[in-house]
Design a protein that fits this description.
- The chain has 176 residues and is an all-alpha fold.
- The protein has a domain of 101 residues.
- It contains six helices and no strands.
- α3 crosses α5 and α4 runs antiparallel to α5.
- The protein starts with a helix and ends in an 8-residue tail after the last helix.
Length: 176
Amino acid sequence: MAAGIVTLFVAATSTLIQRKQMSHERLWLQREYTTNIVQMAMDDPVYAQCWGPRVTPPDMDERLFYYVNMMLTVWSYAWEQRQIGDQQVRAYIRASFESEVSREYWRIFGAWRSHSRRRRERAFYQMIADEYRRAVESGPPSRSYEPPMNLATPLDPKSSRAKRRRSKSSGWPRQP
């Protein structure tokens, strides 16, 4: 009888561990898919128009907002997995909010990001909201927006930069 109870306990524990691992893997896979499609828009801004209206003010390069989004996603994932702690997250965010780009991103998307379904993710974004509020109260950012230095725009098909990107791309979407 005791052996049966121990076996049942071990089987139940194993099932719970596997369930948590599968949930973690699904979340990681979803984030990887998201990162891949955001990376496509960063590599070739023509894809950014598929996301709908511009995500940045008209004079700011959208790729910078995509990059801030990816930074937050990486920090969120590391924090949720307990690879970094609250103080480290807050230090990263304080440094990030020294930039006008990060502040502008959070001003526009902070409320939206804070409405996560998952409690732990909401707690993460609350830390960011707190640091944003402190940053704004402390005065203007120390680093203003810096427009790209190159004259050839990424959307100019004749630019050497655009040609290099096309030659390095995976070919998706495939051209006939």
